[in-house]
């Protein structure tokens, strides 16, 4: 079996190619091509030298949807909504992004008010028709939107989660009279209550849908021309994959496509190393993605907020991103403080040390100046560096602070480490977890470079550096199963009779999942189902979601909620306090075959590769330079140990091992780095 994972990032496109028969894994990195990401992706796939007609699966992680929202390059969208609810998108949740800043203004809505049109229809909260839909009004209002140049239409009617008939009828009318329009209805994406969240999710799906469809069509065409004959599988934010035909109305499910794959890789590798609790930091060219795997499972969130007021209310792997990547630009604010981001040098022109015209100092430039990165070049020498340009950029920045280039570089790295450590604390300490009880999983091209420094800041004593950290998301793509989520608002008190009805609805959703997985060609023995229930004490504003067994009793469900409430808020109400079941959710998982790879030879085996070793000075402080051992990772065998200060270099990353840290090479090829491991 030959498998290829393709993860398109802001700076590089990462390729992970697995030849299962040869039990070999190869990674490649090519510059991303923002004007047409599929061009760089196909170029990277061609480097594998696999005949395209012999490739069994291609899994793809994409930032097309995310970039479209952030950069405002999506489709021109119109919205049909119930009379009186035109301004739901603008009102949002009646909160402010900066509460005490009188000059703060929220970002513009994806659909301006002139393209938000009211339809005189109404459903009750019980799904009863109050005001019937008039087809002629739908045609007339939609025609007005089309005359404004609308390319996609979101339909979000009040209480459609209880009865989607009006939304479905309106969609059929629109598609009959305006067949070229891309149409999304809210209830088919998220059949749950809360009008803002459902409307916002539908609008995002309509906004990114045409763009994603066009991109995937182009990518499919390039692959077909090269000889690929199978489905292209796209990574979803929930950690699963789906085919292109399934994504027409599910485009919003791809917004965390690449980062989700990195967390799947952290989970799989953690499983192999018997490390069930890990904090993943994936430091790429433009950002750091942080996630938590607890008890062997990635933490999920019920929604993500792409920017203030743009919410996608869908199950996602809980990933938080900050602007601290290798290409993040350092600068000095008006108060004279050293700052990082959010600006990035990207792949073009890139950091100053790339020698491509970039002049502003970045984290990569700082690491070159400190000696952490080789001045000879990156990607095994394929990408030469110009270290003098790094020094010049840091000198310009440092002159305003009265610092030398080296002192400035150390300051830049310290700020980056502090920023990442603070984000990790938000994901752990602020949610009741002590980060010292976790291992730090260091992915991305810059993750192993800064990982030990972040760990020291957090008091973490164990690091995991995967075999190919710079292509970890591409590897995670190939470890991802098919996943489909089904949800339904229940909104009834938790009681024996109502819970019987809830279990019946869970069973119905499970059957829907079974039918979809059957259509996907997933064998019954490879199917499994996860059940979740969102609950709250009566009259609370928000609910807590718990995972439960399919045959859970009402008392077991109540106890699961009490445990979750105490963990989240530190208290539980008395047993007489009524609990309300708000939403029911089923996830259907179609398990795909895991690629099997060969392990590393043992250190004592004959015929192992000779270890090449050099040294170079690494400046941990401006006063102290350590003579660090430099080794090439491909030379290391299972059981080899490397004591810090040291640097382990490889094609796609550089691992920094400070003094008092020790690396041991695992059978899987991953590095386990332990503080005080002597």
From TrEMBL:
GO terms for biological process: glutathione metabolic process. GO terms for molecular function: 5-oxoprolinase (ATP-hydrolyzing) activity. Residues 507-663 form the Acetophenone carboxylase-like C-terminal domain. Residues 198-485 form the Hydantoinase A/oxoprolinase domain. Residues 4-177 form the Hydantoinase/oxoprolinase N-terminal domain. It comes from the Bacteria. One of its GO terms (cellular component) is cytosol. This is Methylhydantoinase. It comes from Limnochorda pilosa.
């Amino acid at each position: 079996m030959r498998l290829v994972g393709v993860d398109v990032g802001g700076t590089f496109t990462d390729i992970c190619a697995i030849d299962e028969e040869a039990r070999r894994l190869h990674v490649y990195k090519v510059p991303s091509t923002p004007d047409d990401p599929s061009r760089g992706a196909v170029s990277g796939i061609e480097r594998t030298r696999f005949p395209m007609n012999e490739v069994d699966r291609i899994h793809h992680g994409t930032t097309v949807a995310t970039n479209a929202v952030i950069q405002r390059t999506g489709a021109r969208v119109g919205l049909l909504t119930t009379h009186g609810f035109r301004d739901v998108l603008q009102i949002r949740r009646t909160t402010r992004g900066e509460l005490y800043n009188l000059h703060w203004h929220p970002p513009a809505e994806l659909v301006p008010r002139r393209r938000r049109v009211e339809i005189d229809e109404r459903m009750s909260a019980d799904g009863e028709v109050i005001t019937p839909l008039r087809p002629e009004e739908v045609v007339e209002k939609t025609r007005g939107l089309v005359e404004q140049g609308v390319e996609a239409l979101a339909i979000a009617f009040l209480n459609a989660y209880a009865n989607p008939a009006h939304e479905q009828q309106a969609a059929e009318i629109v598609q009959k009279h305006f067949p070229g329009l891309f149409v999304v209805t809210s209830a088919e994406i998220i059949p749950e209550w809360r009008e803002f969240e459902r409307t916002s999710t539908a609008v995002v799906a309509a906004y990114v849908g045409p763009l994603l469809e066009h991109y995937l069509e182009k990518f499919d065409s390039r692959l077909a021309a090269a000889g690929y004959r199978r489905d292209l599988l796209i990574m979803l934010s929930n950690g699963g994959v789906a085919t292109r035909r399934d994504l027409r109305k599910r485009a919003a499910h791809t917004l965390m496509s690449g980062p989700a794959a990195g967390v799947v890789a952290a989970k799989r590798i953690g499983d192999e190393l018997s490390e069930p609790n890990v904090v993943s930091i994936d430091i790429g060219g433009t950002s750091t993605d942080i996630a938590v795997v607890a008890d062997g499972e990635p933490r999920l969130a019920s929604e993500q907020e792409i920017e203030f007021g743009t919410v996608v209310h869908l199950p996602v792997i809980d990933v938080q991103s900050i602007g601290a990547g290798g290409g993040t630009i350092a600068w000095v604010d008006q108060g004279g403080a050293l700052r990082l981001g959010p600006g990035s040098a990207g792949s073009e022109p890139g950091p100053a040390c790339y020698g491509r015209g970039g002049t502003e100092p970045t984290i990569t430039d700082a690491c070159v100046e400190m000696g952490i990165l080789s001045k000879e070049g990156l990607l095994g020498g394929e990408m030469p560096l110009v270290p003098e340009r790094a020094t010049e950029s840091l000198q310009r920045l440092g002159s305003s602070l009265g610092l030398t280039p080296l002192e400035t570089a150390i300051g830049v790295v310290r700020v980056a480490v502090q920023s990442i450590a603070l984000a990790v604390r938000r994901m752990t300490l602020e949610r009741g977890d002590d980060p010292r009880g976790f291992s730090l999983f260091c992915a991305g091209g810059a993750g192993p470079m800064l990982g030990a420094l972040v760990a020291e800041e957090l008091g973490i004593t164990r690091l995991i550096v995967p075999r190919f950290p710079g292509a970890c998301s591409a590897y995670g793509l190939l470890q991802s199963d098919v996943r489909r989520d089904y949800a339904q608002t229940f909104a009834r008190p938790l009681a024996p009779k109502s819970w019987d009805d809830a279990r019946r609805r869970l069973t119905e959703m499970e059957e829907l999942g079974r039918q979809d997985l059957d259509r996907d060609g997933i064998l019954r023995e490879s199917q499994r189902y996860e059940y979740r229930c969102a609950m709250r004490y009566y009259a609370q504003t928000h609910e807590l979601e718990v995972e439960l067994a399919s045959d859970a009793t009402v008392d077991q469900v109540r106890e699961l909620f009490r445990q979750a409430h105490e963990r989240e808020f530190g208290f539980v109400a008395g047993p007489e306090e009524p609990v309300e079941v708000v939403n029911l959710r089923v996830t259907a998982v179609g398990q795909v075959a895991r690629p099997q790879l060969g392990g590393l030879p043992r250190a004592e085996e004959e015929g192992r590769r000779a270890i090449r070793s050099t040294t170079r000075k690494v400046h941990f402080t401006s006063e102290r330079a350590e003579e660090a051992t430099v080794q090439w990772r491909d030379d290391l065998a299972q059981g080899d140990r490397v004591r810090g200060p040291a640097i382990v270099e490889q094609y796609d990353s550089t691992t920094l091992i400070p003094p008092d840290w020790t690396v041991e090479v695992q059978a899987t090829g991953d590095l386990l780095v332990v503080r005080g491991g002597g």
